[in-house]
Amino acid sequence: MYVVGIDLGTTHCVVARAAIAKPAVKVVDIPQLVAPGEVAERPLLPSFTYLPAEGELAEHDKTLPWGTEVNVVGELARKLGARSPGRLVSSAKSWICYGGVNRKAAILPWGAPDDAAHLSPFDAQVAYLAHLRAAWDRAFPAAPLASQDVVVTVPASFDESARELTVEAATKAGLTDVRLLEEPQAAFYDFIGEHPDALADAKLVLVVDVGGGTTDLTLVRVKPQLERIAVGGHLMLGGDNMDAALAHHVLEVAGQTKQLDPTEWAALVQSARDAKERLLAVDAPDEVVVTMQSRSSRLIGGTRSIIVKREDARRILVDGFMPRTGMREVADRATRPGLTTLGLPYVTDPAIPRHVGAFLRKHAHAAAAAGARVDDGLPRPDAVLLNGGVFNAPALVERFSEVLAGWFGAPVRLLAHTSLDTAVARGAARYALARRGVGQVIHGGSARAYYIGIDDAHGVRKALCIAPRGMEEGVSVDIPERVLELAVDKRVAFPLYGSTDDTVDAAGTVIDAGNRLEAFPSLEAVLRGKNLHVRLGGGVPVRLTTRLAENGTLAIHLVTVQLPPQRWQLTFGSPTAGVSAPEALKITASKLDELPERFNDGRRLLERLYASAEADPANLERVKNLRHELDDLLGPRGEWSASTCRAIADVLLERSSNRGRSDQHELAWLRTIGWCLRPGIGVEGDEVRITSLWRTHDEGLKVKTKGNWSEWWITFRRVASGLSKSAQQALFTEVALWLDPRAKVPQGPRVGGSVEMMQMVAALERVPGSDKERAGAWVANPTSWLVLGRLGNRYPSTSHEVVRKSVAEEWLVRILGLDWEKAEGASFAAVLLARRAEDSAHDVDAALRTKVSERLSLMKAPGSWLELLTKPGATDAKDAARILGDSLPAGLRLT
Fold first, then answer.
1. Residues 533 and 472 in one domain
2. Which of 199, 206, 251 has its CA nearest to residue 228?
3. Domain CATH number, residue 285
4. Nearest-angstrom CA–CA distance, 690 and 677
C-alpha cells in the first residue's frame, strides 16, 4: 500500500510516492514519448497534448509500454507543438478554473481552425491523469493506482466548480477515490517533512506559489499547531503571463504592426517561453534568438529570427512582474481583466509584490492573532516559502527578497526548497502520511466561507452563510431555521458567493451581499419525487444542509421538512455549460412579482381557445384578436413582467398539442409563446419550458401557411438564448437547406419565411464559427445589415464560437462601403464587428475600428456604441434589445 501525491500542474505533472510501511517519499519516473517511437522515463510529464493530423504519425510512433494512444502527451507533445502550435493543447488547468467558457467543450487549441482537431480542458486533464495511472500500474502491477491513497493538488484559489471538475476528471481516468490538497499547503508539507525543526522560532509563514498559470498566496500559523489561516483570491498570474509579455516585446522589436492569428501567436509564445528560461538562468547568455512564424497566402509561410537581449528580458520580466514597490502599494484589482492571450483573461496588474501586499493587509487581523507584528496595517511574516517554477529564476527570487526587505526594514527569511518542480507532489504524499499519523497535520478546514443569495422582505439581496470558513472535512452543517419553498419539477438556481475574509460568520448568518463576497457559478437542482407535500402556494418546504467531504469538495443538499426526509444535491453550475447566454443577455431574474389582477381571466381565455384539437368556428374570430384581448386583461404586452410572461407560457405549453385547431390558432399560439418565453433564459424553470417547446419543434408546424412559417422562425429566434448547442445546430442545419444557394432544395412543399430564417440564424450563437461564416455568405441584400453584424459579433456568448478575424474584417469593409443612412442596421452592425473582443486575438484591425469610430462620431451615434469600440464589455439594455429585435420582459435585467 502506498500514499501517492499527484501535482496536476499547468506546465507539468509529477507523481511522488511513499510506502506506508517505509514512509520515505520518492518521485516516480514517468515513461513518455520523447521522439516518434522513442520512450524514455522522466521525473516530469509536461502538461501538453498534441493532436496529430491524420497520417502524421504512424501507430508505432505513438506506442507506449501499455499501448497506443490517439493523441500524444508529454515531452514529445511539447516538441511537436513547437512546430505545429495549432495542434498543441496547453494550459488546460488555467482553463479549468476559468468559468467564462464551457470547460467540457472541445475548445483547445484556442483559435485553431474549426476543421482541426480539438479537445476540452476537462478531457486534457483526464488524459494527463490517465497517462499517470497507466505509468504507475505498469511500474507497480501488484498495487494499482486506483487502490492507493491518492492526493491530487489544486490551487488554493480554485472555486468549487473547478474542484469538482478535477475530482470528476480523476474519476473518468479511473481514480475513483482521490483527495484534493491546496498546492501551497503541499509545498509547506514538503518543507516541514524535510526540515521538521526549521520553524521552531517562527509564528507566521507566508507561502507564495507562482506557477505556470496562477499565483497562490497562503498564510500558515505555526503555533500552537500548524494552521492555514488565510488564502488569496484567484489570480490568473504566472509564467504564462511572462511568456506573453516577452512575446509582445518580440513583436515590438520586429516592428510587427499586424496582429498575429492565434496559431502564429501560440508559436511565438512557445518560443518566448524557451527564451525566458534561458535568459533568467544563472549562466544566462547575453542574447537568444526567438523564432517568429508567419503564415501567409503562400503555400509555405516564412519565419523571422528576432534577437532578445538579456537586459531587455530582465527589464520586462523582473521589473514588470517583480518591481520594487513600496509597502503601501497594493494591486490594481480592476473589474475588467488585463492582458488577454489565447482566450484567458489575466489580472490587470502583473506586479506580484503588489498582490502580496494587498493579501497581507487584507489578513492583518488573522496575522496579528497568530502573533505576527503589524506595522501600518502590514503584517510581517517570520519566514517566506517560495514555490512554483517561476522561482527557478534566481533574478526573480533576489528581487522579491529585496522588496520584502524594503517593506520591513530588514531581510525576511526565505525557506530553502530541495526542488521547486517536485515539491508539490512530494508534499501531497507527505500530507497523506500525516493523515495516517506520520508527520504534522496542517489544520484550517475550508479556505472559504460560502453563502447563497436570498432576498429580504424589501427585495434587497442578502447572503445566507451555508458553510463557515474553517469548516473541517467530514463535518456537516444544518440550517433548520431557514426554510425555503421550492417548486416541484422545475430547475431552481441559487446565487453562490464565497469569501476568504478573516471574518468568521456562523452558518445561518445573513449579511449584506456586498463587495467582499466573490460571485461563483450558481447552485442548481430539480426537485422530483413521489409523495412530496406541496403547500397551497405550490412550493415544497425544504432546508439546507452542507458537508465538506473527505475529498475536499463541498456537498450541499436540500432536505424536505416533511418526514421521512427526501434529499437532493445541489450541483455547481457552469455559466456556459448548458444553455446559451449571449453577452447581451447575462440575465438575472428580479424578485418575482404578483401576477396581474385579472390573470385568471386571461388563463381561462387561453384554456377555452385551446381546449381541444377540434376546430371551433365560434372562437376563430376571437383567436385572431387574442393579443388585443390579453392586452385588455393584463395591460400592454410590452409592460408584462417576466413572471406574467412565463405564467402565460406555462398555460400555452400545457396545450401545445391543440395549437393546430386552425391556422389562426397556431399563428396566435406561436406569437404568444415566443413573446412570453423571450429570451429563453433568466427565470426559474426556463430550462424545463424550453425543453417542452423543443418537443413542439420535433412535432413540426401543424398548419403550414406562409404566415405560420414566418412566426415559427420568429419564435425560435426569440428563445435562441435558451437553446442548447445541439438544438441550435439542428435549426441551422434545417434552414441551411433553404438559405444556402448551393444546397439542393428538398422535395415537397416549400418552407416559407426566408427573412425570418436568416434573422433566426443570426441568433444561433452556439453554432461553430465556420457555420456563421457560411451563413454570412448567404447575406446578399439583407432587409437589415444587423444580421451580418450579429453573425460576426466579436463578443458572443461563447467566445470560442466566433468567426475568424479575417472574415469579420471582410464583412466590416463591406459595411463601411454602405450609406449608413439608407442601409438599415448597418451602423450598429459595424459596431458589433469592430467592438473590442474579450480575447484580443479576435479584435479586428485597429485601422478599421478607427474608421468605424469616425463614422459613428459624424452621425452622432450613442455613446454606448463608441464605448464598445474602446473596451470589451456587455451591451446596455437598449443595445441588447436592438440585437435581439425585442425588449426584455419587465423584471429581467442585464448584469
1. yes
2. 206
3. 3.90.640.10
4. 8
User: Cα angle vertex 796, ends 345, 338, to 5°?
Assistant: 20
Q: What is the CATH number for 470?
A: 2.60.34
Residues 128/14, Cβ–Cβ less than 8 Å: no
Q: Encode pLDDT of 867-893 as tens digits.
A: 888 877 666 666 666 776 666 666 554
Q: Which pTM was predicted?
A: 0.74
Whether 817 and 877 map to the same domain: the answer is yes
What is the maximum span of the chain, computed from C-alpha positions, in angstroms?
93
Q: b/e for 53-85, b at 16 or more Cβ within 10 A?
A: eeeebeeebbebeeeebebbbbbbbbbbbbebb
Residue 527 and residue 540 in contact, taking contact as beta carbons nearer than 8 Å: yes
Is the Cβ–Cβ distance between 471 and 444 less than 8 Å?
no
- The verdict on residue 443 lying in a domain is no
With vertex at residue 113, the alpha carbon angle to CA 112 and CA 118, rounded to the nearest 5 degrees, is: 60
The reply to whether 302 and 358 lie within a common domain is: no
Whether residues 221 and 365 fall in one domain: yes
CATH number at residue 363: 3.30.420.40
CA Rg value for the chain: 29
Pairing of strands 227-231, 215-221: antiparallel
443-451 average pLDDT score? 88
Query: Are both 340 and 399 inside the same structural domain?
Result: no
What count of other Cβ atoms lies within 10 Å of the Cβ of residue 476? 11
Query: Residue 531's pLDDT is what?
Result: 58
Taking only the tens place, the pLDDT of each residue in 722-759 is 898 889 999 999 999 999 988 887 777 778 899 999 99
Give the DSSP letter of residue 889: P
Cβ 478 vs Cβ 429: under 8 Å:
no
pLDDT of 574: 44
Q: How many domains does the chain have?
A: 5
Counting beta carbons within 10 angstroms of the beta carbon of residue 566, is it exposed (0 to 12), middle (13 to 18) or buried (19 or more)? middle
pLDDT mean across residues, the chain: 86
In-domain check, residue 444? no
Tell me if 45 sits within 8 A of 28, measured CB to CB: no
Closest CA to 578 of 454, 466, 690, 472: 690
Rounded distance, CA 149 to CA 178, Å?
Answer: 7
Least confident span in 55-59, 179-183, 612-616? 612-616
Examine the fold and report which residue of 142, 158, 183 is the final residue of a domain before the chain moves on.
183
Q: What is the pLDDT of residues 140-192, one digit of tens each?
A: 999 999 999 999 999 988 888 889 899 999 999 999 999 999 999 999 999 99
Range of the domain at 323: 239-344
- 695-703: long-range contacts (C-beta < 8 A, 24 or more apart)? 695/656, 696/656, 696/659, 697/727, 697/730, 697/731, 701/666, 702/659, 702/660, 702/666, 703/660, 703/662, 703/663, 703/666
Whether 147 and 25 map to the same domain: the answer is: yes
Residue type present at position 24: A
Q: Is residue 440 part of a domain?
A: no
| Inside any domain, residue 90 | yes
C-alpha cell at 635: 395591460
> How many whole angstroms separate alpha carbon 422 and alpha carbon 416?
14
